[in-house]
């Protein structure tokens, strides 16, 4: 569940059948509550819109019941609740949820139509804030994908070290030293210093050198991990691997700086 703020009103959104639904219950705070919702739902234009939407997206929509409802829509004596609409027609565009986060929710297409009934201004702000939410979700997905890629590359890198550089008889403490040493090969190739050198130069900072890396640096570092695992498997000595990785880092950072915002920090990489 996520929330958006529209004209100082907090509105919940949920996922249902992999689709986005927006809380009509929350949106009603901008108007007159349930009575206002009933008027919207009994309106003939609303019923026709809901019916068309269901016919397009819902193969189980009860068209026979819909025709009965449509014939009565707009009459002064006619009343229709969201629950009755769902039960009679097997509709999926409007749903009700019980419990702590309960209420009436509508598919975003329908919620935008309901927002127009509240006011054109409310609809514009609702669409804007909902799109902002979707943009933030996409950024989060992109960052998650980068993290998963980094994890995979890290596993490939450590496996290459384990299979090629660590003798079976080595104790755990010395094994850790080998891993740290190879991590520093990447640090020197990318940042020009080891992890310890960075800590000595930045005693006031928490974390490690990679915690302060830019997105471009992290992308490049992930690529270096993959390349170093290949070099290790090929049996290249550490000194040669370091030289090659450093040249790749310089080249890739120049490319990344050209395809992203030119104000992004570009470290002054030099050949080691």
Strand count, sense and closure of the main sheet? Answer: 5 strands, antiparallel
What is the mean pLDDT? 82
Q: Which H/E pattern describes the elements?
A: EEEHHHHHEEHHHHHH
Number of domains: 2
Number of helices: 11
Number of strands: 5
- The structure class reads alpha+beta
User: For the largest beta sheet, what order do the strands appear in spatially?
Assistant: 1-2-3-5-4
Shape descriptor reads elongated
Low-confidence stretches: 261-267
State the distance separating the first and last CA atoms: 50 Å
Protein name: KilA domain-containing protein
Organism: Victivallis vadensis
Domain KilA-N: 1-133
List the helices and strands and how they pair.
Blueprint lengths: L1 E5 L2 E8 L2 E5 H4 L6 H9 L1 H14 L5 H10 L9 H8 L4 E4 L5 E5 H11 L1 H45 L7 H20 L3 H7 L13 H19 L4 H22 L13
Antiparallel strand pairs: 1-2, 2-3, 3-5, 4-5
Characterization of the model:
The chain contains eleven helices and five strands, in the order E-E-E-H-H-H-H-H-E-E-H-H-H-H-H-H. It is of the alpha+beta class and 272 residues long. Helix 6 runs antiparallel to helix 7. The protein has a five-stranded antiparallel beta sheet. About 3% of the residues have low confidence. The longest helix is centred in the middle third of the chain and has 45 residues. The chain is 62% helix and 10% strand. The chain has two domains: 117 residues, no CATH class; 123 residues, no CATH class.
């Amino acid at each position: 569940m996520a929330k958006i703020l529209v004209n100082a009103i907090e509105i919940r959104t949920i996922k249902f059948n992999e689709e986005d639904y927006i809380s009509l219950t929350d949106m009603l705070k901008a108007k007159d509550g349930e009575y206002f919702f009933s008027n919207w739902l009994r309106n003939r234009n609303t019923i026709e819109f809901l019916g068309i939407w269901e016919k397009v997206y819902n193969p189980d929509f009860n068209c026979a019941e819909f025709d009965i409802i449509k014939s009565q829509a707009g009459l002064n004596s006619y009343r229709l609740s969201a629950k009755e609409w769902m039960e009679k027609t097997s509709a999926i565009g409007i749903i009700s949820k019980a419990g702590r986060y309960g209420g009436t929710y509508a598919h975003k297409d329908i919620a935008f139509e309901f927002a127009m009934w509240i006011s054109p201004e409310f609809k514009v702000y609702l669409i804007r804030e909902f799109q902002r939410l979707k943009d933030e979700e996409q950024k989060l997905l992109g960052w998650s994908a980068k993290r998963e890629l980094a994890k995979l590359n890290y596993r490939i890198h450590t496996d290459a070290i384990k299979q090629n550089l660590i003798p079976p008889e080595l104790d755990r403490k010395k094994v850790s030293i080998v891993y740290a040493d190879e991590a520093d090969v990447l640090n020197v190739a990318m940042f020009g210093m080891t992890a310890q050198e960075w800590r000595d130069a930045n005693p006031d900072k928490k974390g490690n050198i990679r915690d302060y890396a830019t997105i471009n640096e992290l992308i490049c570092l992930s690529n270096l991990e993959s390349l170093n695992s290949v070099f290790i498997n090929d049996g290249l000595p550490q000194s040669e691997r370091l030289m090659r990785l450093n040249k790749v880092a310089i080249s890739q950072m120049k490319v990344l700086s050209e395809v992203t915002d030119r104000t992004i920090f570009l470290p002054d990489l030099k050949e080691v």
